[in-house]
Design brief:
Layout lengths: L20 E3 L2 E3 L5 E2 L2 E5 L17 H6 L16 H11 L4 E7 H5 L8 H16 L3 E7 L16 H4 L42 H16 L4 E2 L2 E2 H23 L7 E5 L26 E3 L2 H8 L4 E9 L2 E10 L36 H4 L3 E2 L4 E2 L29 H20 L4 E4 L11 H4 L3 E3 L6 H6 L5 E3 L1 H5 L10 E3 L1 H23 L6 E2 L8 H4 L15 H12 L8 E4 L60 E3 L11 E2 L29 H4 L6 E2 L19 E2 L2 E3 L10 E2 L5 H6 L5 H4 L3 E5 L2 E8 L4 E8 L21 E4 L2 H4 L33 H7 L20 E3 L5 E3 L33 E5 L4 E5 L4 E5 L10 E9 L5 H4 L9 H7 L9 H5 E2 L2 E2 L3
Parallel strand pairs: 4-5, 4-20, 5-6, 6-9, 9-15, 15-16, 19-20
Antiparallel strand pairs: 1-2, 2-3, 3-27, 7-8, 10-11, 11-12, 13-14, 17-18, 21-22, 21-23, 24-25, 25-26, 27-30, 28-29, 29-36, 30-35, 31-34, 32-33, 33-36, 34-35, 37-38
Helix pairs in contact: 4-7, 6-7, 7-10
C-alpha cells in the first residue's frame, strides 16, 4: 500500500478519511489500499426529458423553439420510492461508482443565461440519494454529435440558431440524421433507423460546423461575432458557466464533495469538426465509420446550401464498411442557413436576446463567408483550409498572414485550451476534484501532468466496434485500436479468429489505453474506462422473442459472451476501473434506451419476470421516472397506430403514423406470438430504406382482415406494488420485487453473468492477475505485497493489523448462491427462517446490529462486533494452514459490516437481507492467510502478512469457487427467465407464506424507505 499524503497535492489542505487519492497509476483510499472502481453510467435516459424519446416527432420542434422543457425526473424518480430500488439493485451488482450524466440542455434549455435551477436542486437531491447507497460519483457533461436537434444529445436548441443555422432543414439537406424524421421529415419511419447510423453525424455538416466554431471559431470563422465576442468564446462561456453553476450547487449542498462526488469528466466524446481535414474534396482517410449516404466534406457544404448532390452510399457488415452504389440527395432548394428575417436589421434576436455582428450575415453559408468555397461554382477555394493552424486576429483586428504552415493537432491546439477553461471553473467550486480526461474516442490524451496537480485520471471509452455495429457476436474480430495506432500494415493483419484470440485482443487493447495514462498523462494517473458495453438487441432482437416463434425469449447468451469478453479485458493484468454504458430505468424492447434505437441498458422492465411473456412496459415505467417530478407516472393518451409489413411480408408490431396531435410514444401491446419489429437489424435494402412503408390505421382492416383491437395503455403506482400496462386481462395487475435477493439481483437483467462479476474493490498490495471464469463460477486473485504496502496506521505483521484493512473482494450472490436460493422469488425455508417469522423493516438495511436482526429472525448466528479490535469469531474467520481449502458453512451467519469498507451504504438504505447460508462456496487461499465472508455486503475480507522492511516481496493467491459449479441459468445467460413454478413447488424449497420486503417497506401507511 503506497503511503498516501495527509494533505492534498492540489490545495495542500488536510484531507478527510474518505478522500480518494490518486498515485502510482491507481486510485487509493486513506489507508493506501488500491481501489478498483466499477460501476455504470446513470443514465442513457438522461439525454432527453422524461417521455421524450428520440423517435417522437410531435411537438419536437415547437417545444424546442419555445425554450424546451425540464429534465427533472432524469435519471431517477424521487417521489415514488423507485430510486431506492434501482440503487439497491446497482449496489447488489457490486457497483461502487457512478458516472452521472447531465446535458447542457438540462441546465440551460430556456435560453442563454436562463438556467433551470429547479433541475439543479433536483440533481443535488438525487446525488444525496446516490450517496446514501455508498457510491462514489464523477460528473459527466454528456453530449453526442452536439445536440438532440442535430441527431444526438447535449447542447440546448438555441445554440444552433446562434450559429446561424435553421434546424428545420437539417434532414432535407442530409446535414444530420434525426431519428424522429428518418428517413424523411414528411414521411418518417423511425423504427427503420439503421443501427449506429446516428454516429455518422460526427462527419455530417451540422456537427462538423458547430464543433469547428466551438473549438476554433476565432481561427477559422473570425467574422462569426455575437454579443461582441467570437462564437467560439460565446459558446464555450455558456457551456462552462452552466456546468460551473451546477458545480456550485453541489458544493453549496455541503455534504457531497469528495465524500460522494470525487470528480468531473471532460465533455463527452467531443467532435473534431472540420479541424485537421487535409482535403475537403475527399473523405478523410481516418474516417473509419461510413454508413448510409456519405458525402465528402465539400458535398456536405453544397447540400447545406440546397445544391443537389449524388453521394456514395456505404453499408457496414462483418468486414467493415463497403461501398454500395450512390444516392442522389435533392434538398429542393432548402438550406440549413437561417433566414435573415429572424433577426432585426441591427442583428438583434428578440426571442433569444443576442446581437449578431453586421459582418456575420444570416442566410449565407458561414464557410462561403470565409472564402472556403464558392457557392456560384460549388468548388472549394481552399481545399486545405482546415488542415493548418491559422493565426488569430491581431490587436489591430487584422488577420496575420500564415508565414509557416503547421498541421492541426486537434487535442493539443483546441481541446486542451478549452479543457483548461472548463477545469479551471470546476476547480473554483470543487478544488479537490479528480479531473477525468477524455479526448475524442481512441485519441491519446495530451501531456497534462503539471496541470492536473496530482488529481487526474484518464477516462477513455472502449467498445467492441464490430459487435456494436453488426449487432452480432462474431467468431472473428479485429484489433481496431492497434489498427488505428499503426500496429498493422493491413486490415487483414488485425483480424483475430476464435473466441480466445478475440478475448486476448480486447484485453491487449485496454492495456494500450491504460498505458496512455501512464506514458502521457504521467505515472501517477490511473485509467478508468468511462464507457464500455454491448448491444442487447442482437440478431434481430432474438432475446426479446421477436424471432423463431419466440423460443429464444430471455436468452441473452450471445450478449453475455460479448459483454464478458469486453469486461474480462479489464481484468487480468490490467485491473482496470470502468463505468458501463448504461442503466436505463425506462428501457424497452421496442425502442431500446429511447435514443436512436441504441439498446445497451443492462436492465429493462421489459425483462422483469412478471412482465414476461404478456407484459411490456410503457415509456414511463414506474420504477424509472414519471412525467414530472411528482408521483404522476403517465398520461393516458389516445394514439393513432398502424400496422406495417416488413420485407418478409410478416405482420409487424403496430407503428406510429405521426399524423395525430399526440406523441406516438410506445405503442399498445400485442400478442407476443406476433411481436416482431424490423429495426436496428433491418433487412431493408439501400433502395427502399428511404421509402415509407405502407400503413393501415388503427381501426381499419389489418392485412389479416381482422379489425384492430389495440387499446391505450396506463401505468399506475401503489404503495405496495408496481403495475404494468396490460395487453391481456388474464395477467396479474401488480409487480412486486422478489424477497429473495438472488431473484431480485437477476430480475429484469440482461447478461447479468457478465457484469455482476467478482473483483477486488480494495486491495492491499498490487494485483498480479484477476481472473474470472464465468462458465465455471471460479474466481482467482493473485497479489504481490511489499514492505511499502504496510498500513501506516497499524503496527504488526498482518496487512490488516486489527482486521480492518484487508483486501475486500466483491463476491456476487448472482454467481455464488446456494442452489435453493435460485429456484424462486421467496426466501428458501432451508435458510433457517420459518414461515412464521416476520422480517422487520430494519432487516432491509445494509448495516445492522446482530441484536436487531436476532430480534426479528430465529437464527443460528455467530456474532461479530465491528468495534472489537481482536480476532473475529471462528465461524466467520477461516485460516488457511494445514489445509488450503475451506468449504463455506451452511450455518446462517449475520454480521455487521466493517467500518473500513470504503463503499458502505447508509443504515437507512434499502437492501434485501443476505445471510451467509445464501452462499455455496469453497475457498482456497495461500497458507497462512485468513478470510471471512461479509454476506450482507457480498464481500470476502482477505488478510495476509505484509513483509517487514528489508524483506522480499510476497505473493498470495485466493481461489473462490461455487461448490456445485456454475449456476446454469447464469452461465448460459437466461437468469432473467421466469422460474419454473412446478419445479419449485415439487422441490418444496421456497417459502410460500409471508409478505415481500417491498410490501413491508411500502405499506398502506406510506413508504418508510424515503
Amino acid at each position: 500500500m503506497p503511503r498516501v499524503p495527509s494533505t492534498s497535492p492540489a490545495t495542500n489542505n488536510p484531507v478527510p478519511p474518505y478522500y480518494v487519492h490518486v498515485a502510482q497509476s491507481n486510485f487509493l483510499d486513506s489507508n493506501g489500499r488500491v481501489l478498483i472502481l466499477r460501476g455504470v453510467n446513470l443514465s442513457g435516459s438522461d439525454k432527453a426529458p422524461v417521455d421524450k424519446p428520440s423517435q417522437q416527432l410531435d411537438d419536437f420542434w415547437e417545444t424546442a423553439e419555445n425554450g424546451g422543457e425540464s429534465f427533472i425526473g432524469r435519471p431517477l424518480n424521487l417521489e415514488d420510492g423507485s430510486a431506492d430500488v434501482h440503487l439497491a439493485r446497482l449496489r447488489g451488482w457490486g457497483f461502487n461508482v457512478i458516472r452521472y450524466c447531465v446535458t447542457w440542455e438540462a441546465l440551460e434549455h430556456a435560453g442563454p443565461r436562463k438556467y433551470d435551477f429547479e433541475f439543479m436542486d433536483y440533481t443535488v437531491r438525487v446525488l444525496r440519494k446516490v450517496k446514501e447507497y455508498g457510491f462514489k460519483v464523477f460528473m459527466d457533461p454528456h453530449q453526442d454529435v452536439w445536440s438532440r436537434y442535430s441527431g444526438g444529445s447535449g447542447a440546448p436548441y438555441w445554440t444552433l440558431p446562434a450559429c446561424g443555422l435553421n434546424p428545420r432543414n437539417f434532414t432535407s439537406t442530409l446535414a444530420c440524421i434525426l431519428h424522429s424524421e428518418y428517413p424523411l421529415p414528411t414521411s418518417p419511419a423511425p423504427e427503420t433507423l439503421p443501427a449506429m447510423i446516428w454516429s455518422t453525424n460526427y462527419t455530417r455538416l451540422v456537427s462538423q460546423t458547430v464543433w469547428t466554431l466551438f473549438f476554433a471559431g476565432r481561427q477559422f470563422a473570425p467574422r462569426a461575432i455575437i454579443d461582441g465576442v467570437n462564437i467560439q468564446d460565446w459558446l464555450q462561456s455558456h457551456f462552462i458557466d452552466a456546468f460551473g453553476l451546477l458545480a456550485d450547487k453541489i458544493r453549496d449542498a455541503g455534504d457531497l464533495l469528495d465524500e460522494c462526488i470525487i470528480g468531473w469528466d471532460s465533455i463527452n466524446e467531443p467532435g473534431e469538426g472540420f479541424l485537421g481535414l487535409e482535403n475537403l474534396n475527399e473523405l478523410p482517410k481516418h474516417q473509419a465509420l461510413k454508413k448510409g449516404p456519405t458525402p465528402t466534406p465539400i458535398q456536405s457544404i453544397r447540400l447545406g446550401s440546397g445544391i443537389p448532390q449524388t453521394v456514395d452510399n456505404w453499408t457496414f457488415g462483418p468486414l467493415g464498411p463497403a461501398k454500395d452504389g450512390t444516392v442522389t440527395i435533392d434538398p429542393a432548394g432548402r438550406t440549413i442557413w437561417a433566414d435573415p428575417s429572424i433577426e432585426s436589421s441591427d442583428g438583434t434576436n428578440t426571442k433569444w436576446g443576442w446581437k449578431r455582428d453586421p459582418g456575420w450575415k444570416l442566410g449565407e453559408c458561414i464557410w462561403a463567408l470565409h472564402s472556403v468555397w464558392d457557392p456560384r461554382t460549388g468548388e472549394a477555394i481552399t481545399s486545405d483550409y482546415f488542415a493548418y493552424v491559422r493565426p488569430e486576429k491581431g490587436a489591430a483586428g487584422r488577420r496575420a498572414s500564415i508565414s509557416s504552415k503547421r498541421m492541426v493537432n486537434f487535442v493539443e491546439d483546441y481541446w486542451k485550451p478549452h479543457w483548461r477553461r472548463y477545469s479551471g471553473r470546476i476547480k473554483r467550486a470543487h478544488p479537490e476534484a479528480i479531473h477525468f480526461i477524455q479526448p475524442p474516442v481512441f485519441v491519446p490524451p495530451p501531456p497534462l501532468d503539471g496541470e492536473l496537480m496530482g488529481r487526474g485520471a484518464y477516462s477513455a471509452h472502449y467498445y467492441d466496434g464490430l459487435t456494436l455495429m453488426t449487432r452480432h457476436w462474431n467468431w472473428f474480430n479485429a484489433d481496431a485500436l492497434g489498427l488505428l495506432r499503426g500496429r498493422y500494415r493491413t486490415v487483414l493483419g488485425s483480424v483475430k479468429i476464435g473466441t480466445p484470440a478475440i478475448r486476448a485482443s480486447l484485453r491487449d487493447q485496454l492495456g494500450i489505453l491504460k498505458s496512455d495514462a501512464h506514458d502521457i498523462l504521467g505515472p501517477s494517473y490511473p485509467t478508468l474506462i468511462g464507457e464500455i458495453g454491448t448491444p442487447m438487441d442482437m440478431d434481430g432482437k432474438k432475446a426479446y422473442g421477436w424471432t423463431d416463434g419466440g423460443k429464444f425469449k430471455g436468452d441473452y447468451s450471445q450478449q453475455q459472451k460479448a459483454l464478458d469478453a469486453s469486461l474480462n479485458a479489464a481484468d487480468g493484468v490490467n485491473a482496470l476501473s470502468y463505468t458501463m454504458w448504461t442503466y436505463c430505468p425506462d428501457s424497452t424492447h421496442q425502442w431500446g434506451d429511447g435514443w436512436n434505437l441504441e439498446d445497451l441498458s443492462i436492465w429493462s422492465p421489459s425483462d422483469l419476470r412478471q412482465a414476461v411473456p404478456h407484459l411490456k412496459p410503457s415509456r414511463s415505467y414506474v420504477m424509472g421516472v414519471g412525467t414530472s417530478s411528482s408521483a404522476a407516472l403517465i398520461n393516458n393518451r389516445s394514439r393513432t397506430t398502424s400496422l406495417s409489413s416488413g420485407p418478409d411480408a410478416d405482420e409487424r408490431v403496430p407503428q406510429p403514423t405521426h399524423t395525430t396531435t399526440h406523441p406516438p410514444g410506445v405503442f399498445p401491446h400485442t400478442n407476443p406470438s406476433v411481436e416482431s419489429l424490423d429495426s436496428t437489424n433491418s433487412a431493408l435494402t439501400v433502395s427502399n430504406e428511404y421509402q415509407l412503408r405502407s400503413r393501415v390505421r388503427s381501426g381499419d382492416a389489418s392485412p389479416t382482415g381482422k379489425p384492430s383491437t389495440l387499446k391505450p395503455t396506463t401505468v399506475t403506482f401503489q404503495q405496495s406494488s408496481v403495475s404494468f400496462p396490460e395487453s391481456r386481462q388474464d395477467v396479474e395487475d401488480g409487480y412486486t420485487p422478489p424477497q429473495n435477493p438472488w431473484a431480485f439481483f437477476t430480475d429484469g437483467t440482461r447478461a447479468v453473468g457478465a457484469f455482476a462479476r467478482p473483483y477486488p474493490q480494495a486491495l492491499v498490495g498490487s494485483s498480479k492477475t484477476i481472473d474470472f471464469n464465468l462458465e465455471k463460477a471460479t474466481f482467482k486473485l493473485v497479489v504481490t505485497v511489499t514492505a511499502h504496502d504496510r498500513c501506516p496506521h497499524v503496527k504488526g505483521a498482518d496487512a490488516g493489523g486489527d482486521k480492518k484493512f484487508g483486501t475486500e473482494i466483491y463476491l456476487p450472490l448472482v454467481h455464488f448462491a446456494a442452489e435453493a436460493w435460485t429456484k424462486g422469488d421467496e426466501i428458501p425455508i432451508a435458510a433457517g427462517v420459518s414461515t412464521d417469522d416476520k422480517i422487520p423493516v430494519d432487516a432491509m438495511h445494509s448495516s445492522l446490529s446482530v441484536d436487531e436482526l436476532q430480534s426479528g429472525l430465529r437464527t443460528r448466528a455467530s456474532t461479530l462486533d465491528s468495534t472489537d479490535s481482536g480476532p473475529i469469531g471462528r465461524q466467520d474467520e477461516h485460516r488457511a494452514s494445514g489445509s488450503s481449502s475451506t468449504v463455506m458453512s451452511s450455518t446462517l451467519t449475520l454480521s455487521k459490516s466493517y467500518p473500513s469498507t470504503p463503499f458502505l451504504a447508509a443504515p437507512s438504505c434499502f437492501s434485501p437481507i443476505i445471510p451467509s447460508s445464501a452462499y455455496d462456496i469453497t475457498v482456497e487461499a495461500s497458507q497462512g492467510t485468513t478470510w471471512s465472508l461479509d454476506s450482507q455486503n457480498q464481500t470476502i475480507k482477505w488478510f495476509y502478512t505484509v513483509p517487514e522492511p528489508g524483506e522480499s516481496a510476497k505473493e498470495y493467491s485466493i481461489v473462490i469457487k461455487r461448490k456445485d459449479g456454475a449456476i446454469k441459468c447464469v452461465a448460459n445467460g437466461t437468469s432473467s427467465k421466469p422460474f419454473d413454478k412446478k419445479t419449485v413447488q415439487q422441490d418444496g424449497e421456497v417459502e410460500q407464506g409471508g409478505g415481500s420486503w417491498w410490501g413491508q417497506c411500502c405499506n398502506d401507511s406510506g413508504c418508510v424507505l424515503m
